[in-house]
Amino acid sequence: MAKDEQEKHGSPEASSAPGKMSRKEFEKKLSKLQVELVRLQTWVQASGARVIVVFEGRDTAGKGGVISRITARTSPRVYRHVALPAPSDREKTQIFIQRYIAHFPAAGEIILFDRSWYNRAGVERVMGFCSDEQYERFLALAPAVEREVIVSNGIFLRKYFLDVSQDEQRRRFEARIKDPVKHWKLSPMDTESVRRWWDYTAAYQRMIEATHTPVSPWYIVPADDKRRARLNLIRHLLDSIPYKKVDIDLPKIPKAQPRPKRATESLGAGQQIPSHY
Q1: How confident is the model at residue 19, as a pLDDT?
Q2: Beta-ladder partners of 51
Q3: Rg (the chain; Cα; Å)
Q4: How confident is the model at residue 2, as a pLDDT?
Q5: Mean pLDDT in each 10-residue stretch from start to end of the chain (277 residues)?
Q6: Residue 218 CB partners (closer than 8 Å, separation 6+)
Q7: Cβ partners under 8 Å of residue 170, min gap 6
Q8: What are the phi and psi torsion angles at 193 (to 5°)?
Q9: Which of 91, 99, 226, 237 would be 87's cystine partner, CB 3.0–4.6 Å?
Q10: What is the Cα–Cα distance from 30 to 10, expressed in whole angstroms?
């Protein structure tokens, strides 16, 4: 890696250092990557580029966590987080990928799919929500759709699979049960993945084998260490797109207008909230 890349992202040795990464070190490295995410954003807007990033993985692997770090300092009008609910009765009658295509990027947009059309090869396959014929057709067509509809049309496509060990997944589910703030992340469908660990393993192995292609490869992210997984994924995403720093004309803060006679700073109407803190 070139020297400027090492300075931008941190040295390879630091990223692979053993032991738990402290929160302070993580935040320091993350802040540098977030600066680059904003530069990517500016370049995408200036160039009219279109980017799709697919986040797949086992339950509790940290898809939402890394997406939240990507979007924390960026514009929601450029970095759009898409997490679709279960399909409606109408959507079930559409071509399977149709509802996802509706969220594909226009010029100057980066779409972050928190799960994607690969639901068909994961949860739908394991839980029996699709037929064997639908499943096999999806595996056969997905690479062609990605090649002809996405990549051949000039859209950058990045597919990440976040993987955690069986013991770590169980530990994270137990932590969610104990933490009221994380109860919304729990559902019978999610926790069923603990019991069906090996069914999901087989499904994901087949999915990746069938849809890992030269034009749309899968990138595997070991995610037992959440902090390193987040940093490594963001860094890979940045390194994989040939963006450039775009100079922008920053606005100057103007001098305030003179205060009118008899003007007050109080808003007048309205009720001020209590100061509890």
Answers
A1: 84
A2: 110, 156
A3: 22
A4: 41
A5: 47 56 97 98 98 97 97 98 94 93 98 97 95 96 97 98 96 92 86 92 98 98 97 98 94 92 86 91
A6: 159, 160, 161, 208, 211, 212
A7: 194
A8: -65, -20
A9: 91
A10: 10
Ordered by where they begin, the domains of the chain are 22-240 (3.40.50.300)
Cβ-contact 147, 213 below 8 angstroms: yes
CA distances to 17, 32, 64, 228 from 20, in Å: 9, 20, 21, 9
User: Which pLDDT score, from 0 to 100, does residue 232 have?
Assistant: 98
Nearest C-alpha neighbor of 37 from the set 24, 26, 51: 51
Pick from 118, 117, 35, 107: nearest CA to 78: 107
Q: Give Cα 243 to chain centroid, integer Å.
A: 19
For 39-152, strand residue ranges (E) read: 50-57, 79-82, 109-114
Provide the pLDDT for residue 9. Answer: 53
Helices 166-178 & 188-195, crossing angle to 10 degrees?
150
Contacts of 241 (CB under 8 A, 6+ apart): 40, 49, 51, 156, 158
**pLDDT score at 272:** 86
Phi, psi of 163 (to 5 degrees): -120, 135
Residue type, 2: A
Backbone angles phi, psi at 207, to 5 degrees: -60, -50
Closest Cα to residue 219, out of 133, 158, 273?
A: 158
Which pair of tokens denotes residue 179? 């933490």
Phi and psi for 171 in degrees, rounded to 5? -60, -40
